[in-house]
Amino acid sequence: MIKPLSEDLRNKISAGEVVEGPSSIVKELIENSLDAGSNDILVVVEKGGQALIQIRDNGSGIPPDQLKFSILRYHTSKISTLENLFAIKTLGFRGEALSSISSVSEMNIISSCGNDIGAELKIVNGKVKDVIPAASINGTEITIKNLFYNTPARRKFLKTPRTELRKVVDVVRRYGLSFPEATFKLIADNRTIFHLNSETLEERIDNLLDPTYSRNLLPINVVKGDYSFSGFAGNLNLVRTRPGEQYLFLNRRFIKDRLLNRAVYNAYESLVKRGEYPFFIINLEIPLDQVDVNVHPMKTEVRFKDEWRLFNILKSGVTDALNNILNTTPEFDTSFYRSDNTKFNFKDTSNNWFANRNESVQVNPDQENFSLKVSDSVYPVYTNLERAKNYATKLAETPINKTEEIATENIWQIHKKYILSEINSGLVIIDQHVAHERILYEEAIKAFESTSMASQTMLFPEILGFSPDDFDALLDVLPYLEKIGFKIKKEGDSSIKIEAIPSEMALGNEKDVIREILDNFLKERKQYSSFQEGLAAMFACKAAIKAGDSLMKEEMQELVNRLFATKHPYYCPHGRPIIVQMSLDELDGRFERH
């Protein structure tokens, strides 16, 4: 039998499209506050919003005789005609939010227009009580309790209160960045997460994200015809290993658009590697008739009339902002090519025996015709170098015989990057960074299971500030940081004091190490079998000696001895080879000693 659904069931189905969790409720209610002209918004949540969500603003308010209509489906003051639908100026417009929220929670609305007497309306399980008089609050206050209490199947899909709180913080942050002139205050479980006063966008970025961000911003201001882009891109100091600090606003509405994100990433293409994400906050101002925001119930996906024009303008604008960085990036050095561009030659130096000779350099690693002759472009050379690198990598797959010790008495550092030593059957080349990385990784794993790693006390303890959600995540990983040698105390609502760091780590690197560990924690990387392994790998990579660090002979000897005391001395935690081995037979073959 085909029969109509009840009003209550229809509302709950609609709620599934609009109300995904506490953060989506906060989003809808903040949008209503901003649409009402509010410039002072208070957000209060308990247990990540599952127990309580309260939004209070100083907007225009709702007249008492209109209060009952505010929670009916498809009732709104924001649009009235079809033409309005294709020229939407407000953040909300569907007339579904309050109806959907009230159907899956206990809702209470108090509102007054200016200093006039207020009115109060209660809704329980979608049933509306009578409107009663209330004190004037010069705005609107909406309180949501017991979310999904009447739909337990949906309640089970909520994450932990801490995870839901992070989502709420992220939502409030978006509107804080989009409306820096407005005041926002977020309180969670009686703790003030942040309190933002009216300020510039640069100041808002510092207060919401990190106090050092404003020193690393590159302004973006582009006007092309009826399109206008403004905001900031971050320099390379703000590149992170997890996404999340990429903010696109369309006429101050936060949106998600893969093509426009790609436009920004393409501008950074030569500056960052895969798996790195630059910081940006960009507001696109385009005519209302050039975009359709009525695409998705959450209103974060939109459809543009000419998206490729937007792509090209945005990419060009970000590229211009990055010009100062691009100008300082070393270009590929082609000065060692002959003027006829036919053969590979070394640079002409007075001490170089090869200089100005006509012979091309021949490399024959796999007994094939393998020459680094130059053609019309550098790409054939790059391809051959890749083949050579792959071949060299395979050499690391042959373990050194345990009975054959490395002669650490005869040991050298090459280009402050590699350690060269002889063995009975030839020679070995060790990458100093990944060797130290393997050592630190295995020591960190042991520390998680037993005693902590050694620490070095800082002469002057350092205080580091974090964004609210990063600080919240930091509290979760503090026990692990203590295990690997950090001594940390909570200093404020979103800052810590570092009193000691791991003894193997260089001073001045502590914030980068902690930041990378947080990124690893928040990304929940799947390439490691446990969080501890991922954290150990991240710590080892950041704390290990770097290419370019000069080592004394005793330091190289210690590094090699400790490397061969590990369980897996031939590859780093990320899978890169540590050792390249070359036999005497291969050396003799290279020099044609038959």
Could you give a quick summary of the protein structure above?
The chain is α+β, with helices and mostly antiparallel strands and 594 residues long. It is built from 17 helices and 23 strands. It is elongated and about 100 Å long.
Structure description:
Among the domains are: 7-198, Heat Shock Protein 90 (2-Layer Sandwich), CATH 3.30.565.10; 204-327, 2-Layer Sandwich (Ribosomal Protein S5, domain 2), CATH 3.30.230; 333-377, no CATH class. Helix content is 32%, strand content 22%. By secondary structure, it is an alpha+beta fold. Strand 1 and strand 2 form a beta hairpin.
Itemize the secondary structure elements and their pairings.
Blueprint: H1 7-18, H2 22-35, E1 40-46, E2 52-57, H3 82-85, H4 97-103, E3 106-112, E4 118-124, E5 127-128, E6 132-134, E7 139-145, H5 152-155, H6 161-178, E8 183-188, E9 191-196, H7 201-208, E10 217-224, E11 227-234, E12 246-250, E13 253-255, H8 258-267, E14 280-285, E15 291-292, E16 303-304, H9 307-321, H10 323-327, H11 379-395, E17 411-414, E18 418-423, E19 426-431, H12 432-449, E20 455-465, H13 468-483, E21 487-490, E22 495-502, H14 510-523, H15 531-543, H16 553-563, E23 579-583, H17 584-590
Looking at CATH, the homologous superfamily of one domain is: Histidine kinase-like ATPase, C-terminal domain
Instruction: Note the gap between the termini.
Output: 91 Å
- In what range is the share of β-strand residues? 15-25%
- Provide the gyration radius in Å: 31 Å
* Molecular shape: elongated
Number of strands: 23
Number of helices: 17
- In CATH, what is the class of one domain? Alpha Beta
CATH architecture assignment name of one domain: 2-Layer Sandwich
Oligomer: single chain
The helix content is 25-40%
**Mean pLDDT, nearest integer?**
80
Largest sheet: 9 strands, mixed
Low-confidence stretches: 328-398
Secondary-structure-based class equals: alpha+beta
As for the CATH topology of one domain, it is Heat Shock Protein 90
